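Support case: user asked for a sample of complex input and structure output to validate their parser. Sending the pair below.
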Amino acid sequence: MTFDQILFYCLAAIAIISALMVITRRNPVHSAMFLITTLFSVAGIYLQLHAEFLAAVQVIVYVGGIMVLFLFVIMLVNLEVVSTERRFNKQWIIALIASAVLLVEFGYVIVRGGKSSLLPPVTGPAQDLTRKNSEQIGLMLYQNYMLPFEIASLLLLVAIIGAVILAKRRLASDK
Amino acid sequence: MVEYFLIPAVQILIIFLVLLLFVAYATYLERKVVAFMQVRLGPMRVGPYGLLQPIADAVKLMFKEDIVPAGADKWIFMFAPVITMIPAFTVFSVIPFSDSHTTVFGYPVHLYITDVNVGILFVLALSSIGVFGIILGGWSSNSKYPLLGSLRSAAQMVSYEVAMGFAIVSVLIYSRSLSMIDIVNAQKDMGWWFAVIQPIGFFIYLICGVAETNRAPFDLPEAESELVAGFHTEYSGFRFAIYFMAEYANMILISSIAATLFWGGWLSPFPNVKALSFLQVVPGVVWFFLKVFFFMYLYIWLRATLPRFRYDQLMRVGWKYLIPISIGNVILTAVLRLYFRT
Amino acid sequence: MVPLNYFLILAAILFCLGVIGFVMKRNLITMFMSIELMLNSVNLTFVAFSRHINVLSGQIFVFFVMVIAAAEAAVGLAIIVAFYRNRESLNVDEVDRMKL
């Protein structure tokens, strides 16, 4: 086993175990903490795949932005009520079976597809992917993906305004 | 093997210990400077001029009882200070103290631990983790004031991070690289510190840096007059010391980044003026530490001078002034850069 | 070097855990976290394929998915806060009206 593989197994194990914890913990704050651990190990796997820029963005956006927002909302709402509620739905058995079927399906596709792959074969060691990852992504975003990039910025603007309007307390004079 | 594991390990150890010493004496510096500004003497009892005071404080805090309040979420309560401290110390692995290198036992040794090609993003990513320690510490204490303090802190740090990011982007437009070493080298090639080229960005970075570290006049998360001590009210003994150390380490960190990005890191002042080239006799590390020391002094100066903001004022300054100005600055910089293309 | 299949299997497991969390939990916030988990596993496949066939577009897609995730989190959490303010509950079974 190479160092690369050992690293991958460790990160994958951390990711899966903490993902399990996310869905089994009763307290949302604990769930959020384990989700942060999962996000970190996924960022580590990005690093392993030579996507340094994405690994950094993953930590900045997900951990530093979205998860702070989650924790903020969890603290705003009353926790005592939440943590004593029942954890799972009434139909949890059906849900579990459906998910298991999904997993088997995925596994089948991956194992079968791995053998009869239509993908082009890996062309040696990655040439330019490893060098100056952030520069290449920047060039690509502003040249090939200019329109989606602009639309994404509009989407964010709409989301900001929408969130403010939704969460704003309605004043008595509005009604 | 030696090159990849042993040398970095020794470097990390040395930087960690030096940093601990700096953190300890930053508290001494703060107490002395504030005292002189208020025409007092400050700590004088322990050692000559009170020089051993930080060590006495550390020993005292270590032997204090470690209290976990009843009804607290025990694991998170114990773990939260560590979450704040680890990123604050880790970021120093990409700060370049100087570009000069020596050879020790035949191996080249640099005065920085590593140079990452996403350096400044790494800094931003890690410094955004620190807020979790504050949020979780405040929440897990199961107490009113810490919770209020941590909510304030979360909102404040997330808000000011945005403007800080834009201030840094305006520097990146000139440096054309995310690596910390390249950013300093770009200033060398240009002949000017980025603080001269980017005065608005520098100013915004300074303000946001103070807000990010929860220091006066932005110290609402630990406002003594209304929240007892904010998020660390329930902490005592060594865990309180860790929070305290993290705060000062963050101050040193923000000062180091300010020195690297805007004041030319290890470069001497006015690197382009021939008449001042004798300044380069002084090694780069000394310049770096002088710059960091100045920013630390600025922090303390601000604390001794300015009264605390009100919460609505804080949010107004952040969202209505700093963010629009910093976005405008980025656009202006980009346009100028395109117009005066070199 | 780690084969592509390993990354895909890891992503599949994470996705299924996300699905399980989403359909089984009753707490709105935890359900939302499960969605983030699923988005992350999809991102992982994108990056793995991008590395495998040496095309950078996969990483660009991940970038856009992150943008969507940020927008979704902002709006979704705002809805949760508004819902909680009206119902004093985070139980998904009580979200049974088309208005607040």
